[in-house]
Each structure stands twice: as C-alpha cells, then as structure tokens.
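Session log. Operator J.P. requested a structure for one protein chain; no other inputs attached. Running the standard single-chain path with token output.
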Amino acid sequence: MREGETIFALASAAGRAGVAVFRVSGPEARAAIARLCAPSDIPIPRTAHLRDIKKPDSELIDRAVILFFENPHSFTGEDVVEFHTHGGRAIINAVTEALAALPDFRLAEPGEFTRRAFENGKMDLTEAEAVADLVHAETEAQRKQALRQLNGALGQMYENWRTQLSRSLAYMEAAIDFADEELPQNMIEKQSAALRGLRAEIGAHLDDNHRGERMREGFSIAIIGAPNAGKSSLLNALARREAAIVSPTPGTTRDIIEVHLDIGGYAVTLADTAGLRDSTDAIESEGIRRARAVAQRADLKLLILDATTSAPPDFPIDADTLIVTNKSDLATQQDKHAIAVSALTGAGIPELLNRLAAEIAKRFDNTTAPPLTRARHRAALEECVTHLDRALAAPMADKRAEDVRLAMRALGRITGRVDVEDLLDIIFRDFCIGK
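Structure written below.
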C-alpha cells in the first residue's frame, strides 16, 4: 500500500447494468464528493443521499446515490465513499475519468481494498481469503463455506490454538528463568499434556481428506467404462448439452472431456474418458492411459456398463466406484446392485443425480469445526505439528520452549499475526479489481 494515496475502482461487474457502484478509499475520499458534487454535498455518514455528479468543467455526468463511511467504521478502516450511478458504459467511463483526474487518486490494484482492510486491522488473513472465495463461489456449498470463514470461525480456531501455545510457552519460560524458585512441581507435566492435546487436535484438523480444499476447487467425478457403453451420452445427459461427440464407432473419445456442474449445491468436475479395452492404436492407448490416471485421481468414479451385454471392463471397483448400467430401456433384466439409466431417453437420470448428490454430501459431511481451506494453511499447520513433536521430544527446557515458539509463529502466519509481508502479494493478486 502506497501511503497517502486514495484508490478507486468499479466495484460492481463490468459492462452495461442498471446500477454501477464505484468505491473510493483513502485520505481524500471525502474530497471526492466535494470535487465531483459540491463542498456542501458531504452526506451524513452511513446514510444514502441523491447528488449530481459533475466533470471538472461542471458538465453533469449523472445523478447518483452517494454513501459515505467515516474511518474507522468502514470496510477498509479508511474514509470510504461509494457512488451508485446508472450502469451505462458512457457513465462508467465518465466517472472513471473524473476520479482519475483528482490529485493523489489512482485506480485500485486487484484486491487492494481488502488488503487495506487487513492492514488496518479490520480482518485477518483467513477472512481476507474468504472475501475472494465469496467472490468466486459458484455453488451453495462454496458460498456457505466462504461465509463461515468470513465470519471468523476458522481464524478464531487458529488464534485459540495460538493462545494455548502462548500460555504454555509462558510457563516454560518461567521455569527456565526462575529455575531456582519454588515453582509448582507438576507445571512442566501439565504443559506437556496440554501440548499433546493440542497436537492431537491439530492432527485431526489436518486429517480431513482435504474436504475444505476440494470444496473450493470442486469435486471430481470420472466416467469410465468399455467403448460404446454410453459414457459420452451420459455426460451429455448430465450436462444437458452436447459437450462430447457421440458416435457408434468404438474409440471415438480419445482425450479427457470435462464439464463443470452444480450437483446438489456442490461444484463438480465431470470427466468423460476413453473406453477401456486392449488396443494396438498408439493414440487410443494413450487415451486409455490418461483415462486410468484421471480415474485414479478422481474423488468418485462412475463405471458405466452396457445393460445389453455382460462384459464389464477390466477395472478395479472400490468404495469410491458407483456402477451404472446404461441403455436400460433396451435391457431385458436389471442388475439390482447398479443404478439403471438410459442416456437416450433420460430414464434414471434424476435418480442418478440424487445418488451423486448424496455421495458427495457424505464425503463433505460437515463437522462442528470449520474446514481447512487452503494449501498454505495446511503447510503452516504441518510445520506447527513438526515443531510440537520436537518440543514434546526435547530433553532440554530451552529447546522445548524454542520449538513451541516456532509452532506459534507457524500458526500466526495463517491469520497474519507474524511474517506476512512475503505472503500478501500472493494472497491478494487473485482478487478482482473492486475488492
């Protein structure tokens, strides 16, 4: 953040709309109202007022609703002004040019409003990351997870752990500094027990099958099966569009075809793969290799069988495999252990979607603790656990205390309490301009 500069940006979506929202933050935000409207037009903080917005030469741009948030009672902790104008492109361009012409005003960089909020103590890093997740949320489950993190549940849990370590460290340092004093006999034993309990709690948080990260990135489902079992037809039926080429010629699908769906409120990436069979064709063999690799990485596999034949492909079936029999409209009998569908007629597709939603929800079953959502959180927590293990095994009190201090620092990096300067650019660069 460059000191003394006031930033502005279009905070609503680009393009023509009914309303466009411009956000201004910084020491000269209040002056933006005086210069674009009139010195007497400064509204009462946190109330909406209708004002004329003019160019520097007094030409009228638009009539807009203006909101003023006085520091520190704003999103960024600075003076903030919002101009709610009509959303035509000409008006957006004119307001942008008028703001850019003001002294010490500049267009905000991606994520800069949220970064200023963090730097001014309005939120911690986990909450700042949640703002980005809310902006990018595409499903109900992603929205709920991001909102829970924005409300501080994840950051509060990490800060509580850090407070526990701080308390243990204080007792350990007291035992070192006042070794000749009469201190409670069991003080060190109590702190060791507390560290063991905390280490188990953090370990359980890490052992979550990456559910929080998978919620953000999307649940992956691979469609596998023999050639002409109807995999591509099923993909099209689930996607409700012709995403994959369908042909009676075996081996038509060579590469991975992915579609992104919302199933039961969860973000899902559905992958159609090459038919599994023995082949001497080099290109088809590569497609089959890729199909097996995608299936191995997938969270769930749909093994598609042709209901009119009894020749399943050579593929291992595990707890993450659902068997689906396609062409059920042509079959004389059904496998009671399989999900019967017809990609051609649509029969069984609603039941399959319901089953998929249930399977995904089961894997994302929410616990009382907020989920771990980012790789950088996991790395810091793993580092914290490493130091706790070393502290519990350390034979000397000073070594034990130093590892507890390092464990605290690892936790602090998640919420932004320590060592964050090198993280800020990475965290905020993925934001949109108006956030």
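Operator note: Residues 153-177 form the longest helix (25 residues).
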